[in-house]
Design goal:
Length: about 230
Amino acid sequence: MKYLMQNILIMEGTNSRGKYRWMQADLFNDDDIFDNPAQLPRYFNMTPQVIDMFMPAAEKDADASDDNITVYKVNEATVVEAIKNGKYDNDVIVRGDILHIDRVFPLEMALTGVWGRINRRNITNDKGENVAKKGEFRKGENGEVIPVTAITLYLKKNKEGNWVDDPKIILGRVLERGYRRLTDEYNDAANPVASQAPEAKTAPTYTDEQIEGMKKLGIPLPPGAE
C-alpha cells in the first residue's frame, strides 16, 4: 500500500559527531480515505539524502523547538510544486514523487520502565488561554498521566524485507523528543491518596468466653488473646 506523507517535520540535534536529523510524517491512504484511522500512523526516517530532499521546503517552528532540538515544518504545497517541476526554485533537483511511500510496517517496541508523553509546545484553549505548558506531561480527561510501556513505530522495509532504519535508534529519537520517564516521585505527587501508607491493622479482640473455649480445645492463643 502506498501512503501520502502529511504533517512532515524534520528535527535537528547535535551530538559528539556533529549535527544529525530525523524526519517524521503522518501516513494517509489517499487511494481510499475511508481506510484511514482517526489517529494516523506516524512514519520515521533518518536517511540524510532523503531528508535533504525536503529541507528546501522546511521552515523553522520556533514554538516546537528548544535548546536541544530544532524543529522544521515542511511546506507540502512547495514540495508538490517541486515534484511537478522536477526541482525547487533554488534548482535543487527532485527525483520522482517523494511524498508517497510504500512498504511501511508497524513494529511494537517494549520500553524499559514506565513513560509518559509530554507536550512539545504550549497548549492553548479557544480563548487563547494557556492550559498546558511545553515540556509537561500530557494528561487525560481525568487529570492523570497515561502510563506508556510500549510504542508502535511505523518503519520502512527494503525489498529484501529488512528494516531500512535501525528501530532501536528511531525509538531513542522518539523518546528523546516526546516522552519522559514516570518517576515514583511524580506518581506520589500526582496521586497523594494512593501514595499514603495503608493504615495499620489493629489486632482483633476476643471475649473471655472465646479465650476460655480456645484453652479447653488446646488451640494456641493468637495475638490479642493472651
